[in-house]
From TrEMBL:
Source taxonomy: Bacteria, Bacillati, Bacillota, Bacilli, Lactobacillales
Source organism, top-level taxon: Bacteria
Region (Disordered): 1-52
UniProt name for this protein: Uncharacterized protein
């Protein structure tokens, strides 16, 4: 199909039916053939399941330094609110601005360095949702 040309609803329906039939046939034959792709699916299914490699970064960590590095690099998490006197918060923001660091990153660094013990970090890592 030429770029920029739109498909009619009938053409889209036909492509969807063909892809669904190919997927059903692959599931019935218990093999992992490559599902044909087209512009509608944008490359979805062009890697058979048996060729998908596991990310080595997903392996279970056991060393404290690796777990600490995992948490230092972690960007998700839950939001929380804390309260400080206004003048301390202003000073904190000014210092962190000079360091080019966010409040979240600084608190995380302080907790990992000074507050949590090795065993506590390892326990938290083991209990994290996977």
């Amino acid at each position: 199909m030429a770029k920029g040309k739109r498909l009619t609803p009938q053409q889209i329906r036909e492509q969807e039916e063909a892809a669904a039939a190919a997927l059903a046939a692959a599931e019935e034959s218990d093999t992992n053939p490559v599902v044909p792709t087209n512009d509608v699916f944008g490359g979805i299914g062009d890697t058979p399941k048996n060729e998908i490699k596991e990310d080595p970064a997903e392996k279970e960590l056991t060393r404290f330094e690796d777990i600490r590095n995992y948490y230092e690099a972690y960007t998700g998490g839950k939001q929380s609110t804390f309260y400080l006197p206004e003048e301390l918060l202003r000073k904190l923001k000014a210092k962190l601005s000079e360091e080019d660091m966010s409040i979240t990153d600084k608190i995380k660094s302080l907790l990992l360095t000074y507050y949590f013990e090795d065993k506590e970090l390892k326990d938290s890592y083991q209990k994290r949702p996977k």
